[in-house]
């Protein structure tokens, strides 16, 4: 009788160990892999108001509307760029993005490079770089018809940067077929490393 009880006890213990062993073996297998996280998409665009691209007359105190310009007055052009990811996260502090910005005068507000008058095109670095005259923020002064010449001459602020512009003249004779003339100012910016990622903005001015 004692022998039977001992055998039953040994069998019961063996069964219990086997069950526990099976359980631990199952739990130690490879866990299910998490689904792939979708890659973030970079967003590159001009800032919205109040820091959207603007064109204004620094001589507006004379009574002229801020977007009207007479000969020998200065057209001030500014903008701010936004760069972030589509999950609303921002680039790391050591990330930078070179981009090229161009400013045109247009008769109809539709970007047609062969028909529009390019005032300037410039290399910029977001958020900023000491060699570039523009970055997250950009500011330019363009002298309209200085000395009653048929030119608009633009310079970057600050001046003297390697990638800046200084007194870059553009002949306006063909574009200014009537005076005064209302025109659209087209801002176009594209990332250098992703040339198809561009952003545009349209403003307005009048040249008297």
Automatic annotation (TrEMBL):
Keywords: Signal. It comes from Marinobacter aromaticivorans. This is Lipoprotein. Residues 1-18 form the signal peptide. It comes from the Bacteria.
């Amino acid at each position: 009788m004692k022998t039977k009880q001992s055998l039953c006890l040994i069998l019961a213990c063996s069964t219990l160990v086997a069950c526990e062993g099976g359980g631990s073996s199952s739990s130690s297998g490879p866990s299910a892999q998490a689904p792939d996280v979708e890659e973030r998409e970079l967003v590159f665009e001009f800032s919205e108001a109040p820091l959207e691209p603007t064109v204004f007359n620094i001589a507006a105190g004379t009574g002229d509307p801020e977007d009207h310009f007479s000969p020998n007055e200065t057209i001030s052009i500014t903008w701010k760029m936004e760069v972030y990811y589509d999950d609303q996260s921002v680039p790391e502090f050591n990330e930078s993005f070179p981009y090229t910005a161009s400013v045109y005068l247009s008769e109809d507000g539709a970007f047609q490079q062969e028909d529009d008058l390019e005032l300037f095109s410039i290399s910029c670095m977001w958020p900023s770089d000491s060699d570039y005259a523009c970055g997250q923020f950009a500011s330019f002064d363009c002298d309209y018809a200085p000395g009653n010449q048929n030119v608009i001459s633009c310079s970057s602020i600050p001046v003297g940067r390697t990638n800046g512009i200084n007194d870059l003249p553009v002949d306006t004779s063909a574009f200014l077929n009537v005076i005064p003339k209302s025109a659209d100012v087209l801002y176009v910016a594209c990332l250098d490393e992703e040339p198809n990622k561009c952003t545009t903005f349209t403003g307005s001015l009048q040249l008297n």
